[in-house]
Amino acid sequence: MITGKNYIGKELSAEGSSVFEATNPATNKKLNKFHNATEKEVDAAVEKAAAAFPEFSATSAEKRAEFLEAIGEEILNIGEELVKTYCAESGLPDGRANGERGRTVNQLKAFANYIRTENWKDEFKDEANPDREPLPKPGLLKTSVAIGPVAVFGASNFPFAFSTAGGDTASALAAGCPVVVKGHPAHPGTGELVASAVIKAAERTGMPDGVFSNMNSSGIEVGTLLVKHPKIKGVGFTGSLKGGRALYDLAAQRDEPIPVFAEMGSVNPVIIGSTALEKRGEEIAQQLAGSFTLGAGQFCTNPGIIITTGNNKGFEQALVKAAAGIDAQCMLHSGIKKAFKENKEQLLAEAGVEVLSNYKDSDDNTAGGTIVKVDAAHFLKNDKLQTEVFGPFTMLVNCNDIDQVNQVVENLHGQLTISLLAESEDFKGLKKTVQLAQHKAGRIIFNQMPTGVEVSPAMTHGGPYPASTDSRFTSVGIPAIKRWLRPVSFQDFPAELLP
User: Do the Cβ atoms of 156 and 184 come closer than 8 Å?
Assistant: First the structure.
């Protein structure tokens, strides 16, 4: 049942008079009211997390694994109420809701299974050698420990998988870090229901009160308070470059700076080899149209730039035709629609940009595909052309030859993904392209669309700035746990005293 209150540990709280309403973006119908967390409530949640940290971080990996699995079970136990709330608050279909819920539960199971292996500790042992000359060699054990309470920011585009009990929360809890979530105001009911599942799982498995809290917030105040709180030791964020950079700067200004692991902007370039374009240009056009409009383009891996060479009028026409056959879709909330419209209009006004297809914006929250074109010379001169337009938008960048393609790749900002669509005849010319691409993106994809992120030990979902604030880490897959751990070495310690 949705109460509209905040969870401070296992206690529901609504001390403040400030409220906001959830809205169905498809109908603009107002839904439930939610209490914005007050400064006192935020402080109480963090203090509880800090008090829970020593006990929770010392809990065995097996116990934490049982907790993670119990969260997944309790999410499923909510049943259809959770799916209906997700759909009402996001405008997304129930098929997407069920798929994302399954992914979220599987993420929790994956982290549970991983910490049972003890591999997460990344341990290394150096045996002592007291007879070494000229100095004895000490015995060393390097292991990993949790960094402390973590603040997690819910994402607008994934109400399950990147929000309340999503990858950031699951990986932090797996590491032994209590979590305080700042829920996204676009789906607060979904967030509260999932939070209730986490609380039930914590009580079921005997976790300390304060291991998890959920704060409602319609603005930036709660997030600011969390990042500035001296007992918060790390931050997980998925969202815009503007939002992620603001949190990063705020954390750096603290007396004790803390890491902010933010996954932010990416235009996910797709490079098409000339032979691939010649042999299967129409097929590629269909695939790209489906990819850049998928979910109204509201994926962090949406292909926002398509790089080609030569005269490609036939391909351009095929892409425009394929996109025109895809209906406009509801965006997640009015704020995203407003930003999409503004960013699109700003980019359309840039020199050298030719509009191939521009869906006429309506007054509601729907959006359709827009395709523009620019030559490589204009692209290389204007950094603004690399701005992410979050929504169903893509830009064709036409190059004279493979050397100019490489010049474009070399000048790209950091990306989550770069995709290569090629035939074997294209390989020789693309070797340098791949060498350049590996320094620009966290994931290089061959002959597939970038939309879709496998939850896997080998996955990297991150990349050089501005794709993320720290390209050494991933926010998807079990290696995401490394963000919430730090190394500790024990020297010449008796086994009886080791934690």
Answer: yes
CA 79 – CA 324 distance, rounded (Å): 37
Catalytic residue among 192, 263, 316, 388: 263
Pairing of strands 179-182, 212-215: parallel
What DSSP assignment string belongs to 184-221? -TTSHHHHHHHHHHHHHHHHHTTPPTTSEEEE--SSSH
Catalytic residue among 87, 300, 330, 399: 300
Helix (H, G, I), strand (E, B) or coil at 135: coil
Under a CB-based contact definition with an 8 Å cutoff, are residues 162 and 154 in contact? yes
Pairing of strands 19-23, 30-35: antiparallel
Its sign, for the CA torsion 36, 42, 48, 49, is positive
Q: What is the DSSP letter of 139?
A: P
pLDDT, tens digit, 9 for 90 and up, residues 145-194: 999 999 999 999 999 999 999 999 999 999 999 999 999 999 999 999 99
Give the integer Cα–Cα distance in Å for 72 and 78: 10
Tens digits of residue pLDDT in 337-368: 999 999 999 999 999 999 999 988 788 899 99
Structural contact between residues 348 and 341, judged by C-beta atoms closer than 8 angstroms? no
The pTM assigned to this predicted structure is 0.95
> In sequence order, which residues have a C-beta less than 8 Å from that of residue 395 and are 6 or more positions away?
267, 304, 305, 306, 347, 353, 371, 372, 373, 374, 385
Alpha carbon separation from 272 to 254, 257, 275, 280, 417 (Å, rounded): 45, 43, 8, 10, 14
Q: 28-31 — which CB contacts under 8 Å span 24+ positions?
A: 28/364, 28/365, 31/88, 31/89, 31/189
Which residues are paired to 234 by β-bridges? Answer: 150
Average pLDDT of 127-138?
95
- Residues 391 and 366 sit within 8 Å (Cβ to Cβ): no
Are 303 and 394 in contact by the 8 Å Cβ rule? The answer is yes
Count CB neighbours of 257 within 10 A: 11
Helix (H) or strand (E) holding 307: strand 305-309
100 is catalytic: no
CA distance 78 to 235: 28
* Identity at 442, one-letter amino acid code: G
Q: Which two tokens mark 35? A: 């209490």
CA distance readout (Å), 22 to 32, 76, 190, 363: 6, 23, 10, 19
Nearest to 158 by CA among 457, 474, 453: 453
Residues with Cβ < 8 Å from 63, sequence gap 6 or more?
A: 205, 206
Instruction: Using the CB atoms, write b or e for 173-198: b if 16+ within 10 Å.
Output: bbbbbbbbbbbbbbbbbbbbbbbbbb
Active site residue 80: no
